[in-house]
Amino acid sequence: MAFQTPPTIFILLSLLTTTTTTTTTSPYLSPTTLPQNYQNMLSTFKIFIYTPNKPFTFQTPPSSNFYKFLLNSNFVTQDPEEAHLFFLPFSQPTSTRALGRLVKDVRTQLPYWNRTLGADHFFISSTGIDHSSDRNVVELKKNAVQISTFPTTSENFIPHKDVSLPPFNPDPLTLPHVPGNDTTTFLGYLKWDGQTEPALVNELKGDVDFMIESELLDHVEGVGSIRKRSSTSFSFSGSRKSKFCLFFYSGDVARMVELMGSGCVPVVIVDRPIQDLPLMDVLRWSEMGLVIGTRGGGRGLKRVLLGVGEERYEKMRELCVEASRHLVWNAEPQPMDAFHMVMYQLWLRRHTIRYARRNWV
Question: Which GO terms describe its cellular component (predicted)?
């Protein structure tokens, strides 16, 4: 059964319009056009799905969530002539040779790939497609829209073409975070995997303004004391007591969304520009979080955080809370949640030039 668009979508769209017209700052890149464009997507967007060689499903979320929701959505059409985009499903992992054969079969058996050389096609690859000399794989990587999980290896992700899926959280946090009150005692909170950037982490451990949670030590350090904790979960009390939540780009970012929803401003620690943040075409990430390198060490990181004024910080926190609802994977799709906003990014990529049919080999 296909998912129906709930009546509440019109209420949400009304709230979105009201919010973005009465404030000077919005979490959206295009706050005035998003409501109408989103509604147009719901009513017109159509996707044709190729039949896979054999039934399969993706094993891990969020890829499995997106695939399941897409198959049961009203976006799917059985008429390829009315489709805006074409979905190419294949199981993973798939070898480069197998991918080449798959694309070759599609181009020789049906006319749709050759009309755009794959530019109106998209596929799911959790880790992204690497470079290849195979002509068919080259077209897949360069032209088709890739949907991958965040974070994605930089060489496997092409900005402005590809889309990353918001992280999946099985138990999103719902408790509010109120910076500036008596419970906000730390400048930064970090869960450390015990491997990434140990020098920086060791430096932050010696600073009473940071709470560090370590998977190796099974305790939380901060303010000169040790707090016992579960080794399998975040210290939500620690994040709620902190203004900023720190994440290593290559580490565990799955909790970023729910901590944003609790009002903890995200700080991504990485030594290069990143362009695969979820919903990059929708959200103003530069107004909601910070990207900081490791070259300045703990002192440099702290200097940047302390340089964020209270007015700016409060606005960042508010935007994080407002934007977080668009990054949540619900048990079933809800208006403007992670599934629908990923679909919206695909809809923005629907304009491609279609050439007359040619015989390609």
Answer: Golgi membrane
